[in-house]
Design a protein that fits this description.
CATH architecture of the largest domain in chain B: 3-Layer(aba) Sandwich
Shape of chain B: globular
Oligomer: heterodimer
Strand order of the largest sheet of chain B: 2-1-3-4
CATH class of the largest domain in chain B: Alpha Beta
Structural class of chain A: alpha/beta
Number of strands of chain A: 10
Distance between the termini of chain A: 64 Å
Number of strands of chain B: 8
Helix content of chain B: 55-70%
CATH topology of the largest domain in chain A: Rossmann fold
Radius of gyration of chain B: 21 Å
CATH topology of the largest domain in chain B: Rossmann fold
Strand content of chain A: 5-15%
Number of helices of chain B: 14
Strand content of chain B: 5-15%
Number of domains of chain A: 2
Largest interface: A-B, 40 and 41 residues
CATH class of the largest domain in chain A: Alpha Beta
Number of helices of chain A: 11
Structural class of chain B: alpha/beta
Distance between the termini of chain B: 73 Å
Strand order of the largest sheet of chain A: 2-1-3-5
Chain lengths: ~300, ~375
């Protein structure tokens, strides 16, 4: 039996976990192709025009998988420990897909801590609904979780390595945006590639170790309750000593970002910030001009600093 | 800031007619301070709010910010923001930062922390402003205000249902205005009951013509655009003028006391279409539209401010419901650029459409 995972939204964060989990349960895993023009167009066609661009792309990926696999995995993310919540978009992805496409077979689970649904029991439910034994599912979950933990820490260590070995002349630019934007082929990739082409050293705020001591995010925002925005703020705090500039990337009409990015820019005083908002009508040239001038600003600022020293 | 001689001036953002019970509550709690009802929302409020807000934040943020700026300009020193689910809980922090960056000096109070009402913490916060505040009177005033809101909602519901039948135009409006004005000065349960009875009596005396043929429509959607008439270009009044009887579920009473209990019932009702809650008021929109369709309403009006994620989540499902039950649903998105004429034109077309549909049904 084939399980399809759309390569969009939170898959960019949890792909290792989910892939390993389903493979250990002896399923074939089909991952939708990387975002391309066709997926984007399909997504726009199928979704409400006011939805955020990331969710439009998600629908495109679901359409891409439709018919290629037996079940599509669309979990619901709602609330987590410490009263953290996910953006309400993640609450409804399952129901949106179910009502938009006909004859779609979906495997789902409900990560809703505040309603008493624990992560592990939800994974066990998936195994149950697919006809796998309790014990096997449990083992698969533990294995997947370990792999995911290793993967996160590895990524973090790699990034630290880059920071240590950096040349002092290089510009270190921190990308602050959700993983499904940063690592998306159409949204974040072109920006990251262009910055790298200009010789900048890219650091990602979404790469943080699995457990971070202390509430680093509270230095920027005291009341924040979106889990994924919280992680980005933690990333900013972790790396802020090493970086010369911050690029915020958000997609148009993203709920949490509309508030959090604005607050960040108001609170971070000594690091230059650039706020890029992407929508489906973006022009590459306009974006490149802004990136170039931003890199110029950082370079001049650094030079001026070096002279002053 | 702790200058005793200086009198604090307290202000809060607008939402519908709820300023009246809130004013009454604050003036009883803080008898050492002056309470400033923010200026009525106008185009200027919108522009002020929009100028200083992030670009694509949802519209209520901009209205609230506009209210705050206008109040601060009039000398307010304490601002109160409620807080709640979805993005609303995060408004306070950013609004405070924006206003501080603008150079205003003030104290900011949020009623709900982390989505929970903590009575003792709230009491402590209020005590900072009014050191003489007693706990028992704090509780008494809160209960009274809840009752006031309850009665305000009841009266407004009656008016909403009957205004379309009135024979002499403007009678209900006048009564409504009078009631809201008098509500501000109610100080105890007894006078509140007298006012309620009195108003009910007056409503009975208004001549209505129940035989008038009207269309029945329901309003669903996001709470702020439903409850703050300015933000939806007074859509309810517009509907009644055209000859439509309006039903609306969302009131503050509903949000405070019934929503929590109702969730399971709503999900059960909507289970044909949705499996999980859609977040914020999305589930309500779906369940209520099913209810309206089954009750034989002629049309449904869905309102939301620009960028409201939970309502956008609900739209694909509402579209399916509309097809299945063959009941038209019209979707309005309100933001700073929405033109009033555009809204009116669409409403008129919608009215004509459901009217023709009904007439064809009779044949």
């Amino acid at each position: 039996m084939k399980i399809g995972i759309p390569n969009a939204m939170l898959s960019h964060k949890y792909m290792v976990l989910w892939e390993s989990f389903f493979k250990s349960l002896d399923f074939d895993v089909v991952i939708s192709s990387k975002t391309n023009k066709e997926i984007l167009e399909n997504g726009i066609k199928y979704s409400n025009d006011e939805s955020c661009l990331a969710s439009k792309i998600f629908l495109g990926h679901v359409q891409d998988l439709h018919g290629k696999c037996d079940y599509i995995f669309i979990p619901r993310h709602c609330s987590f420990k410490n009263n953290d919540v996910a953006c309400v978009k993640f609450n409804a992805l399952y129901d949106i897909c179910n009502n938009t496409f006909n004859n779609l077979k979906i495997v789902t689970c409900d990560f809703d801590y505040n309603r008493g649904k624990k992560e592990i029991s939800e994974y066990l439910n998936i195994g149950k609904s697919l006809g796998r034994s309790y014990f096997k599912t449990f083992r698969a979950y533990i294995k997947a979780k370990n792999e995911y933990r290793k993967y996160c820490n590895n990524k973090y260590e790699n990034q630290n390595e880059i920071l240590k070995n950096k040349n002092k002349k290089d510009n270190n630019i921190l990308i602050v945006s959700h993983p499904y934007i940063t690592h998306d082929e159409i949204l974040g990739r072109p920006i990251v590639n262009y910055l790298e082409k200009m010789g900048a050293n890219i650091i990602y705020a979404d790469i943080i170790p699995e457990k971070v001591k202390g509430d680093l995010w509270s230095n920027i925002s005291k009341n924040i309750y979106w889990k994924y925005s919280k992680e980005l703020l933690t990333g900013i705090e972790l790396y802020k000593e090493y970086i010369d500039g911050i690029v915020f990337i958000s997609v148009f009409s993203c709920g949490p970002d509309s508030l959090v990015t604005d607050l960040c820019i108001r609170k971070i005083k000594n690091i230059p910030c650039l706020n890029l908002v992407l929508d489906e009508l973006n022009s590459d040239t306009g974006m490149q001009t802004r990136l170039e001038s931003f890199v110029d600003v950082i370079t001049y600022k650094k030079k001026a600093g070096a002279i002053n020293e | 800031m702790n200058d005793i001689l200086k009198k604090e001036i307290i202000s809060f953002p607008h939402m519908g007619n709820y300023y009246s019970p809130i004013y009454s509550l604050l003036s009883r709690l803080f008898n050492n301070c002056k309470i400033l009802i923010p200026a009525k929302i106008t185009k200027k409020t919108m522009e002020l709010g929009e100028k200083h807000s992030p670009d694509f934040v949802c519209t209520p943020f901009k209205y609230n910010l506009g209210n705050f700026i206008e109040s601060l300009e009039k000398g307010a020193t304490v601002l109160i923001q409620a807080g709640g689910g979805c993005r609303f809980g995060y408004y306070a922090e950013l609004q405070e930062q924006i206003l501080r960056d603008l150079g205003y000096n003030f104290t900011f109070i949020t009623l709900l922390d982390a989505k929970k009402v903590d009575v003792f913490r709230l009491y402590k916060k209020f005590k900072l402003i009014n050191p003489d505040l007693k706990f028992h009177s704090f509780i008494y005033d809160f209960l009274l205000t809840i009752k006031m809101i309850n009665i305000l909602d009841k009266i407004e519901n009656i008016i909403r249902e009957n205004i379309v039948f009135e024979v002499n135009e403007g009678e209900f409006d006048k009564l409504h205005r009078d009631f809201v004005y008098k509500l501000q000065f109610v100080g105890d349960f007894k006078s509140l009951n007298i006012l309620y009875k009195d108003t009910n009596e007056k409503i009975k005396n208004i001549v209505i013509d129940k035989n008038k043929k009207v269309l029945k429509v329901g309003i669903i959607g996001e709470l702020y655009t439903e409850m703050e008439p300015f933000s939806s270009f007074f859509i309810e009044r517009e509907l009644s003028k055209m000859g439509m009887q309006v039903k609306r579920y969302t009131t503050v009473t509903y949000l405070l006391f019934e929503k929590g209990k109702a969730e399971k019932v709503l999900l059960e009702r909507a289970k044909k279409y949705i499996k999980f809650p859609l977040g914020a008021d999305g589930t309500e929109s779906v369940a209520h539209s099913i209810e309206l369709c089954e009750d034989g309403f002629d049309g449904i009006i869905h309102t939301k401010p620009f960028g409201c994620t939970p309502e956008i989540n609900a739209i694909p499902i509402l579209q399916k419901i509309s097809r299945d039950y063959n009941v038209p649903i019209i979707y309005f998105t309100f933001d700073m650029q929405t033109s009033e004429t555009g809204v009116k034109t669409r409403l008129e077309a919608f009215y004509d459409m459901i009217k023709m549909k009904k007439e064809a049904g009779y044949v």
